[in-house]
Amino acid sequence: MTKxxxxxxxxxxxxxxxxAGEPEALKVEPPRxxxxxRDVLWFEDxxxxxxxxxxxxIVTENSQMPGGHTYxxxxxxxxxxxxxxxxxxxxxxxxxxIPGGMNPNQVMVQFMIWSDDTGEITIKCKHKDGDYEExxxxxxxxxxxxxxxxxxxxxxxxSMPKAEHVTDWLEILFRPRDKKYPKVYIDDFIITGNAVxxxxxMPRVMLARKAVVELTRTVAKDSFSYSPHTQDLLKxxxxxxGVRRKPKHVLVIGSxxxxxxxxxxxxxxxxxxxxxxxxxxxxxxxxxxxxxxxEDMRMLLPYNVQKENPESMxxxxxxxxxxxxxxPSESVRVVLERALGAGCVPIVVLAPAAxxxxxxxxxxxxxxxxxxxxxxxxxxxxxxxPNAANKSAPEAxxxxxxxxxxxxxxxxxxxxxxxxxELNLFNKK
Length: 429
What we know:
- With 429 residues, the chain is of the alpha+beta class.
- The chain has helices at residues 2-13, 198-215, 219-222, 228-241, 257-273, 294-308, 319-322, 328-341, 359-379, 386-389, 404-426, and strands at residues 40-44, 57-59, 70-72, 74-75, 85-89, 108-115, 119-127, 130-136, 145-150, 169-176, 184-192, 224-225, 246-253, 280-283, 285-286, 289-290, 310-316, 345-349, 382-384, 397-398, 401-402.
């Protein structure tokens, strides 16, 4: 009770910091794979193991460049008679909106294809009210050749592309001339807008791609997520906040007050090991001691931002948070929006999912984490998967929460995430 009264008082005092009332939701524009190339709506070169393409597989065979990767189309169960191979792409998961208000005549699709047989390639786009497609024939076998189509040329019997459509699914289908399954590979899939030809922009894409690879971090590889889209949104949020906080100061809000203190110690130990020097980690506080937990995050964030003036904050969620009634992801959203509005960049640690969880419990934790990830993507907030950080080792968990060993593993990744922000966001003009 004391915490709530104190927090309410502090909340009134710091209204000038941008915490008065509920903050307006940040406007989110469709992401671009390369923020500096606004005409490139979507791009995939299969160098990231987290590709959206389904039904086939990423391979190194027939790569256009030494050590590179391509995508091999998979055999279609439904097309066995004609030996179709195909790929399916849930494009909405990328956040791209195509055409999404753009004139379909100004949208172009291009990719490279290699096949060991001549045949017919079909590009099909599905939206909420229907679908349409366009066909092409690669003119050479066993060579990389480009396929380029204009979005407006897609058709079916009943409809044609309109500016207001948003493509939900993209399909690439190849029907071979001979009645045997062909080997078909695709690469450098690009969609452009504003009547820019993909071939004209590809040299700049290749240069930008190198920078993106250096910037991007994935949960599968690094245990935390960061992308050009994340960076773009964070830059906009910091610009809107108009405040520069104390460099290399990190506010730590653990899942419990005790966890906050322990995590500060773990971070202070982990940071120097990865050459992250000069950082100060401070546990969030309350009137009667250390703060921690989702409720404290909501109530005491304004006070702690004013007191510590942190450049960033680490917000740790728990198994208990995942089982809370109501809509806990909305509580997390409020905290994140308040932090961004005050010029403090948040990093979220997802709830742990111990291997010993029952099916129902795991379902709840997974659903909770999915909701948090969606919020983070919308706001451009970096998130850490503690399960990936600890490779889901049983000893990393204690009573469904992270054990001391699990906390240390997560702290190592958190230190890497903090340093990544420093190098790529705070120190970049």
